[in-house]
Design a protein that fits this description.
The protein is α/β, with parallel strands linked by helices. Helix content is 40%, strand content 18%. The protein has 2 domains: 4-138 and 309-327, ATPase, nucleotide binding domain (Nucleotidyltransferase, domain 5); 145-301, ATPase, nucleotide binding domain (Nucleotidyltransferase, domain 5, 2-Layer Sandwich), CATH 3.30.420. The longest helix has 26 residues, at 248-273. Bound molecules: 5'-O-[(R)-(carboxyoxy)(hydroxy)phosphoryl]adenosine (KG4) and zinc ion.
Length: 347
């Protein structure tokens, strides 16, 4: 028996819906990005985000069903991101999912957004055109798995002993890695979102032009990026006061190298300590080419990184995580509430 999950994701600035079969095979994956809308503010503007989710959510669900050539009768459960995320954004997806569950009689499954990022690594890419022609699937990540989740809102190292069993080893004490990319991009005059802009600028620069600090925080698996951000700010001010043009490419490359070195170093250290069977990197920053290359080059463990399209927010990952919860017997009631600060380790 096939199990198909329809999932909705509205935790931040992407309105997304997807249908995933048996936790791995994407039948459709639709995302309406609000990036252009928020670029004028240099970051996500919560009220604008929730209003845009309201406009986009039902058309996005419709197109996910159409793209998969399915209607709700072919679906087994409705999954939705319950948190963490922006309250006004989460509530739009959760209410829409409840409406769909109520109308169809299908079970409702609340999913943690970070859990979704983890399960993006289980998804096959690209989406299949017909659910009858199944692709050859890559081997699944093996447990114990060491996951580095790096996004605009989170930087966490998580030990996963088995499906749905998460132990948080460490997290950022200040800025998330993606947030640091976005803030530093603004400091050096690059566009929003900062991650892709820094990656592009860094390709023309030298990673050793500036000796930016690495916060190793010995003895803990936590991260800190605020000192690095301040160091970039100090250099930028110094050059501006001296009337010098900013060497954007060198600043970007040196900053990116400092972030990547710490992320990769700590992830490998944790994987060794906990004798992981593999390493998984997920979340928007895992789209970063320098990070992907460094992990692949330095890791003695198998490395799982989702395809680029599944690194940033999407609903296929929520469907894949929702599948694991559904087959494990988790259901939520129609009075399920959003959990804007839901920690992964308490899922
Ligand atoms: O996972 P995501 O789409 O949303 C959150 O859950 O936060 O992550 C968005 C973050 C942004 O901070 C963006 O700048 C960063 O991911 N990002 C990147 C790259 N692509 C996106 N950071 C570094 N390099 C990239 N190529
Ligand atoms: Zn995310």
């Amino acid at each position: 028996m096939l199990t198909r999950i329809l999932a909705l994701e509205t935790s931040c600035d992407e309105t997304a819906a997807a249908i995933v079969q048996d936790g791995r095979i994407i039948l459709s994956n639709t995302v309406a990005s609000q990036v252009d809308l928020h670029a004028q503010f240099g970051g996500v503007f919560p009220e604008v985000a929730s209003r845009q989710h309201i406009r986009a959510i039902y058309p996005i669900v419709d197109s996910a069903l159409k793209q998969a050539h399915l209607d709700l009768s072919a679906i087994d459960a409705i999954a939705v991101t319950r948190g963490p995320g922006l309250p006004g954004s989460l509530v739009v997806g959760v209410n829409a999912a409840k409406g769909l569950a109520l109308a169809s009689g299908l079970p409702l499954v609340g999913v943690n957004h970070l859990e979704g990022h983890i399960y993006s690594a289980w998804c096959h890419w690209p989406p299949v055109q017909s659910s009858d022609t199944l692709p050859d699937l890559a081997p699944e990540p093996q447990f114990p798995l060491l996951a580095l989740i790096v996004s605009g809102g989170h930087t966490e190292l998580v030990l996963i002993q088995d499906h749905l069993t998460y132990q948080r080893l460490g997290a950022t004490l200040d800025d998330a890695a993606g947030e640091a990319f976005d803030k530093v991009a603004r400091l050096i005059g690059l566009s929003y979102p900062g991650g892709p802009a820094i990656q592009k600028a860094a390709e023309q620069g030298s990673a050793t032009a500036f000796a930016f600090p690495r916060a190793w925080l010995e003895g803990a698996y936590n991260f800190s990026f605020s000192g690095l951000k301040t160091a970039v700010l100090r250099e930028v001010r110094r050059m501006q006061e001296a009337g010098l043009a900013l060497p954007e490419a060198n600043l970007a490359a040196s900053f990116q190298a400092a972030v990547v070195e710490v992320l990769v170093g700590k992830t490998l250290q944790a994987a060794r300590e906990f004798q992981a069977a593999g390493i998984l990197a997920a979340g928007g920053v895992s789209a970063n080419r320098a990070l992907r290359e460094a992990l692949l080059a330095q890791s003695e463990f198998p490395v799982y990184i989702p395809p680029l399209a599944l690194c940033t927010d999407n609903a296929a990952m929520i469907a894949a995580a929702g599948y694991q919860r559904f087959v494990a017997g988790y259901h939520d009631s129609l009075d399920m509430d959003i959990l804007p600060n839901w920690p992964l380790s308490e899922v």
